[in-house]
Amino acid sequence: MEKVYDHNKFEDKIYKLWEDTKSFTPEVSNKKKPFCIIMPPPNANENLHVGHARFVAIEDILIRFYKMKGYSALWLPGADHAGIETQYVFEKKLREQGKSRFEFDRDTLYKMIWDYVQLNKKNMESQIRKLGASCDWSRNTFTLDPKIIKTVYKTFKKLYDDDLIYRGEKIVNYCTKCGTAYSQLEVNSVEREDNLYFLDYGTIKIATTRPETIFADVAVAVNPKDKRYKSLIGKNAKLPLVGRELPIISDILVDPKFGTGALKITPGHDETDLEIGKKHNLSTINVIDGSGRMINTPQKYIGLTAFKAREEVIKDLEKEKKLIKIEKIKHFVGICYKDKSIIEPKISKQWFIKMKPLTQKALKSISNNEVDIVTKKYEKIAKYWLKNLKDWNISRQIVWGIQIPAWKCKDCLEWTITDGKTPLKCSNCNSSNLKQDTDTFDTWFSSAQWPFATLKIKKGDFDYFYPTTVMETGYDIIPFWVIRMIMVGIYVTGKVPFTKVLIHGLVRDKFGVKISKSKGNVINPLEMVEKYGSDALRMSMVWGALIENDISLSEENINGQRRFANKVWNISRFILDGNIKPSKSSIQNEDDKWIIKELNKTIDKVSSLIEKYKLSEAAYEIYDFIWHKFADIYLEKIKNRKNEAYKTLVFVLKKSLQLLHPFMPFLTEKIWQIGFFEKEKTLLINSSWPK
């Protein structure tokens, strides 16, 4: 053995050996219990970041452990086309080249993004290999694979046939920069200070933060219990600048404490206003288009951005003496989770899924412990969202994604829904004058089907591995993904998609600050692998914090685990390098008995801790045993009787390598090749967990 462990010499070769020997492909056998993790598919649009390294480390530890325990352990890898996320990244790159998405037709833009994603997907998969992931690449899946799309279409058709999908005109969260509608989950709320404008509507005064939308006003509403305005109900107000008369109505939804207590009703641009408008049979006017510019207004405002229109409207209101005063107000506004621009609530026709029938079964599965969310604080978050989800807008006005299989008849204006096949005739009037909807599915709609869609590709997988065992992911996508997988999984298959949910925290820098490019504290996982080795990075991903908590990571942490790798190498070199002449005597003294007793205690503790998902504590137990008990105490004590203690040394080293293997697979496999492969006739990855 070389004096110093050089990870760069061994890691790629060892990974190739694992792949060549099909060590990642489980034996599907009734004689074995299944253990399955479906990998949360990384977005195939950029390099992996340090957060990916954490999920790889956690999931790989579990897979390797249960494989060594005798389970048929499948870790199914994949990549996500990631819808708007990827289109946003690609458009950013276009802008850097002085180009725009508007310069290309739909098919050309799709092909450009496809080529970009395929290149990044291949690179991303290479990076996952670098981290030592023991996933079964023969089952590798992409969310735009034809068989996945086929499953997504079948689910859509089933939902439609069961009257759980409808085409509706509702207020949606629209990002004018991204050019698409979003669901409620993709809107971030931020508190900010804005102007509250008090305006004169003739017989009544109103207050609004959005004077540019007054041209969409169709009424003024007051609370029926507000004594100030009882005499005005049924009379008219007058809309400034255009002079249109507006009815003054009463509705319990009006907050009498906000502003003047009188609310301008703008059904085309506010969800509460739309609800009030429907109750009172009011019309709906839209004055802001999908690009964020003014429409259906007096000519001077048409084409202006909403922000510029606000400035012009205020100037004109001042001229007409209709602006009473301006006050500052702190309130929450919705912003796009991608580009951080203000979300424009606007009325739009979209495809919606009725949530209540799906959420009820999902809630029941959690309450009955069919799905066990290991950390109870995250169970509360999941239940909160399931109880508060509105109907899910699943249509997106973007190119990149799975196009919705809905065809509109130009003759009768009705929709024909299929499971992906192009219809020859309208299902309503038999006309062949059909055109497919250009909208694509919300990427989370296809991702919600990931556990069963992936397992239905290879014959026998679904029956054997579904429901899967553990869904491990970050806490930031509990509402986006976890609860949706539970809902859709139960609906389509009649079973929960997984029995355990393990949530991990974020990776932060050594000061506890969230890692981001803007803060300049990014830790590149591939650079750390190159410098310190995959094993050191992996160990640092679970060191010192519970899985569900955020961890503080620094290069010093990773280097500390590199020193541990060197310690294990040096211990192994001392035992295996031919410096010891084994004695024929096999008599054990008290020191030998002590280390074996400590080893057995460690095996029991580590096994129990991993089964409870307490990976940081398991890592510490292994570290403490190898470095302190085995090296510092036992090796020091047997220096003068190392020949006599040889069998014990080899026995303890072998078991230690097996214990450490899920955490530091490359190092342990290399040492195993040197000291144990010839005798055991098996790779360490395929050996049994120590007992």
What report would you give on this structure?
The structure is a single chain. The strands form nine sheets. A four-stranded antiparallel β-sheet has the order 6-5-14-16. The chain has a four-stranded mixed β-sheet with strand order 10-11-9-12, with helices on one face. It is of the alpha/beta class. Helix 16 crosses helix 18. The radius of gyration is 31 Å and the shape is elongated. It has three domains: 248 residues, Rossmann fold (3-Layer(aba) Sandwich); 166 residues, Isoleucyl-tRNA Synthetase, domain 2 (Alpha-Beta Complex); 121 residues, Isoleucyl-tRNA Synthetase, Domain 1, CATH 1.10.730. Helices cover 41% and strands 18% of the residues. The longest helix is centred in the N-terminal third of the chain and has 25 residues.
Architecture blueprint of SSEs:
Blueprint (H helix, E strand, L loop, with lengths): L6 H14 L13 E5 L11 H19 L3 E5 L1 E2 L3 H14 L9 H25 L10 E2 L3 H16 L3 E11 L4 E3 L4 E14 L4 E4 L10 E4 L13 E3 L6 E6 L11 E4 L5 H9 L26 H14 L3 E14 L7 E10 L2 H12 L4 E2 L2 H13 L3 E2 L1 E2 L9 E4 L5 E3 L16 E3 L3 E2 L1 H5 L2 H6 L5 H5 L2 E7 L3 H16 L4 E7 L2 E3 L15 H8 L1 H9 L8 E3 L1 H22 L13 H22 L3 H23 L8 H15 L4 H11 L1 H4 L11
Parallel strand pairs: 1-2, 3-4, 9-11, 15-23, 22-23, 24-25
Antiparallel strand pairs: 5-6, 5-14, 7-8, 7-13, 9-12, 10-11, 14-16, 17-21, 18-19, 18-20
Task: Describe the structure using short key phrases.
691 residues; alpha/beta; Rossmann fold; Isoleucyl-tRNA Synthetase, domain 2; Isoleucyl-tRNA Synthetase, Domain 1; four-stranded antiparallel sheet; elongated
